[in-house]
Amino acid sequence: MREENHSLHMRMSLKSFRDLDVYQTxxxxxxxVMTRIVAALPQIERFDLADQLRRASKAAPRLLAEGxxxxxxxxxxxxxxxxxxxxxxxxxxxxxxxxxxxxINPELCDELAGMYxxxxxxLFRLADAWDNFKTRNPATTPRDHTRRHTLNK
Length: 153
Fold this sequence. Notes:
Low-confidence stretches: 1-6, 141-153
Shape: elongated
Helix content: over 70%
Number of helices: 6
Structural class: mainly alpha
Radius of gyration: 20 Å
Oligomer: single chain
C-alpha cells in the first residue's frame, strides 16, 4: 500500500525526464559502465568494444531525455523510447562480452546487464502506456463522460 502511494505520488509529480525511475536507472548505469567497466578494458578494445559500450551506455538516457521533450508527438516519443530500448540491449550484449571474453568484474557486469534489462522493460511499459494514453478516445474518459452527462440534464 505504501509503495502504491509512493508510485501514485511520483506519477502525479512528474515534472521532468529526470523524475522518471527509468532515467535514473539508465544514468546511474552509464556512470558505472564508464568508470568501472570501460576504463578497465584493454587498449586493443579502444576502437571496438569500449567505443560501442561508451556510446550505447550514454545514448540510452540521452534518448529518453530527448524523447521526453517530444512527448506531445506520439510517434516521435515512441521512436526515442524504441531507440533507448535498442541501446539497452546493445549494452547487455557488450557487458556479456566484457564478462565472458575479458573476465572484467563479472559480478558488476551481471548487475549492470540486469539494470539495462530492467530499464528496457520499463521503457517498453512506458511506451505501451504512452501509446494507450495518446490513442484513447476522449469521449470515453470519466471526466468527459461526467461532463456530457451533466450537460444533457
